[in-house]
Amino acid sequence: MPPDSSPAAVPAPDIAAAHPPNRPGLAELFFAFAKMSLAGFGGVLVWARRGIVEQHRWMTAEEFNETFALCHFLPGPNIVNLSMVFGARFRGIAGGIAAFAGLLLPPMALMTILGALYARYGEIDVLRRILAGVSCAAVGLAIAVVFRMMMPLIKKRDVIGLGLMVAVFIAIGLLRLPLAAVLLAATPLSLAINFVMRRRTSP
Question: What mean pLDDT value characterizes the chain?
């Protein structure tokens, strides 16, 4: 009797193998973070999230939030930490260095030139007005990215996560409590709540 050749006997194709994850190369990491840094007037976080999540789709919105949360608790600038962690996730140490170099080298060269020009022409009134307008736009961009990073919590209806976020904002932004003290209290509380919630939802 011939072997069973019915559709049920044919092994299903490996979808993961047919569609490998989008893993950026070293050059792609460098130029992507260079583009983010050069566009990041007032802060690179807005453009980093747009490039990583929306444009290249290297991470989901939740993965970006989790990675940025980790970088927020590491010493040093958050976006610099993000470049190293993100690059190393895909290409190891070389990837971290490529993303780090792309983030810092182009704006460093640009700011060296602009710093020399500002030292010479910084007292001009028109330039001061331009810088004031840029600062307003930077604040608007920061507020916009905060709302976008909130969307995964809102879509999941994560009341506890939103409550913790609001509590931290009130403690630091309104009550002016020390940042280190708030983080030392909020981080263990957040981890404990997340652990308990996972235990309850796990089978």
Answer: 79
